[in-house]
Amino acid sequence: MIFGMWDSPFFDLGPIPVDHLVFTEWVIIALIGIIAFTATRNMQLVPRGLQNAFEAIILWTYDFFTQLMDKEHVAKKWAPILTAFFLFILLSNYSGLIPGAAHVQGFQPPTSNWNVTMTLALITFCSVHVAGFSEHKGRYFKHFVSPGWAMLPLNLIEEIAHPLSLTVRLFGNIFGEEMVIAFLLFMAPFVIPSAIMGLSLLLGAIQAIVFTILSASYIAAATGEGH
Amino acid sequence: MKRNKRFGLSVLFLTMVMILGFATFCMASGTGTMPIEQPAGNTPEFGNLYVIGWSAVNFFILLALLYKFAYNPINAMLEQRTATIEGSLKHAEEVKVEVEQMRKETQANLADSRKEAQDIVGRATKAAEDAKTEIIAKAEENAKNMKNKATAEIQAATEQAKIELKDTAATLAIMAAEKVLNRAITEDDHKKMVKEFVNEAGDLLC
Questions:
Q1: Strand A9-13 vs strand A16-19: parallel, antiparallel, or unpaired?
Q2: What is the CA radius of gyration of chain A?
């Protein structure tokens, strides 16, 4: 097994190459879409079964971000994108635990590649500044030079450090986890990796939550009264 | 039935996992030829613009799907649910007010009824009192009338008896005098004596 073996084009869609992990992303998105469609296909006033579970997830994330952000209108505006982050990262992390991940063609856990985590971090980065600007308008740019002009470089570094840390944290954790499981499978393929796989279930959820909470807190900081 | 089926399926699944695990174990340790390649690190290429682009597109597709199938319907449902609950609460409040009104009305009716009953009893008592007074007055009057009548009758009878007694006494006296004297007396003597006797007898009798 060679890591990154499938970090290569799977097939070409016209002139654009489609990587294995991009195909996996499609499958994950289709899965989320199908679950969402099935859950909300026949909405009932009194929720039952899948509708209840799905509503609970959406409402839980919404409440969570509302509590985190203080400003309810900001939370309402940005909760959907954060929930999408959470669901996408969670399923991407867990996809690495399914047998055959990184072995079968077109099945590469997306979050074990830092191009994907960087994309997500860049979306967060853009969201943070759009949220800050739409909340404070022109005043938003003042915080780059606060408390004085001398702090501009440091502030800029801080802004760049946010997406960088998001990228590396998620990528490092999932890539490392995948690597540990692969090595354990190589050395002792029976029973022993299951312990690490159990931990990976926890790790996958924690990383998804951490990424989402950090994104939410960056947005909260940008839209907060400090600016 | 459903439970048995689920139980059977889970047993089947666990057996498969055990067999597969055992098979890999045997294969890994048995023949000496490793079926699993030794892991070799190959850090993913950084800055693959195609992957970045695809991931961004995919993420926004996911967002759109979630908006279409999750956020919008769930928000609509939540609004509907809020409206329903608010409606129910409002209705409950209205019913409560109505019940309170009805209770007040009933109490008022009850008070009226009680008052009316008291009036009726009062009126009946007064009528009975009046009737009693009237009956007693009438009875007293009747008794008085009867007494007066009786007194008058007794007086009349006494007078009558007196007159009759006087006549009888006169006749008796004449007869006695005739016997005593044994002679005829004149009319004047006769009358004189009778008068004297009667007066004496009358004084004696009365």
A1: antiparallel
A2: 20
The DSSP bridge partners found for residue A16 are A13
When divided into structural domains, chain A yields a total of 1
Chain B residue nearest residue A33, CA to CA: B65
Q: Do B69 and A2 touch (CB under 8 A)?
A: no
DSSP A192-222: HHHHHHHHHHHHHHHHHHHHHHHHHHHHHHH
Closest-approach residue (CA) in chain B for A52: B74
ipTM over cut 0.90: no
The reported pTM is 0.66
What residue numbers bound the domain in which A153 lies? 9-223
d(CA A224, nearest CA chain B) in Å: 25
pLDDT in tens, A133-167: 988 888 888 888 877 888 888 989 988 999 999 99
Phi, psi of A19 (to 5 degrees): -75, 165
Choose among B37, B52, B69: nearest Cβ to A40. B69
Say if the Cβ atoms of B42 and A4 lie within 8 Å: yes
The packing angle between helices B49-66 and A20-40, to 10°, is: 0
